[in-house]
Amino acid sequence: MNQNSDRELDEIVRIARAAAAVVMEVYATPFAVEMKGPGDPVTRADREANALICRALEAAFPGEAILAEESVPADEELAARLQRERVFFVDPLDGTREFADRNGEFAVMIGLAERGRASLGVVLMPTTGEALAGRVDAGLAFVEAKDGGRRPLRVSPVRSPADATLIVSRSHRPAFVEPLLTRLGISRVVPCGSVGVKIARIATGEADLYVHGGGGAKLWDGCAPEAVLRAAGGQFTDLSGAAIDYAGPGLKLARGIIASNGALQGAAIAAARSELG
């Protein structure tokens, strides 16, 4: 499979671009920030992009299950959708806090899980127009620029934790990160908003490792970034090293995330196990 042969992935890139245009229209104007709950902001951009993506997925992939952040169904229907063989996970605006702060660190994310495993994903940065896309089983990963030009996507070759760059949350830095840094001997730490933007930086080789403690992250935060990263040669697991199960139960990534260029995954998992007991 070459970089131009995956029609399903191409269609999802197109949908993400349409949603990004909506996001940037709102970004260019004064907008209100509401709170869905403690530490959980939402804007008109989240809701409008969510509606656009869901409509477009329904039209392009009739009958497929969709779980989107701003339109989660009631419990019974949620459980039924999670059990479907193919489920699209949608985060219409990952990094709403960063969107509200206007620092550019936000993304439109559409992922596909098949039989509970992330298989395909698109992570698009609206401020730059760059779309990272990947299909895991084909090892197909590319960056599509705003003008449509594509280049292959590949993680860094860094193998030693001492040479690694750890990317951490700008607003939800887990307490165990500091002892983890000491245990691994990592000195380069870069704060960043949005799970999608963090994983994008690992997939492009700008960073090497990301660790998330599990608080607040949901399945739609993980599916698209995981597919992109794994297709680019990286790894994405929970803190114990187990694969993420997108068939539930529930929507939370309660067991955290370790994402890396692959070469650092084993050391990071061992260090996390030691710190967390």
Brief synopsis:
The protein is α+β, with helices and mostly antiparallel strands and 277 residues long. It has helices at 7-27, 44-60, 75-82, 96-101, 177-184, 195-203, 219-231, 265-276, and strands spanning 34-37, 40-42, 65-68, 86-94, 107-114, 117-125, 130-135, 140-144, 150-152, 165-169, 188-192, 209-212, 235-237, 257-260.
Explain how this protein is built.
The structure is a single chain. With 277 residues, the chain is α+β, with helices and mostly antiparallel strands. The protein folds into two domains: 7-152, Fructose-1,6-Bisphosphatase, Chain A, domain 1 (2-Layer Sandwich); 161-276, D-Maltodextrin-Binding Protein, domain 2. It is 34% helix and 26% strand. The protein contains eight helices and 14 strands. The chain has a seven-stranded mixed sheet with strand order 3-4-5-6-7-8-9, with helices on both faces. Strands 11-10-12-14-13 form a five-stranded mixed sheet, with helices on both faces. It has a two-stranded antiparallel ribbon with strand order 1-2. Strand 8 (140-144) and strand 9 (150-152) form a beta hairpin. Helix 6 runs parallel beside helix 7. The protein is globular and about 50 Å long. The relative contact order is 0.14.
How would you describe this structure in keywords?
Inositol_monophosphatase_CS, 26% strand, five-stranded mixed β-sheet, 8 helices, single chain, alpha+beta, 2 domains, globular, seven-stranded mixed β-sheet, 277 residues, Fructose-1,6-Bisphosphatase, Chain A, domain 1, D-Maltodextrin-Binding Protein, domain 2
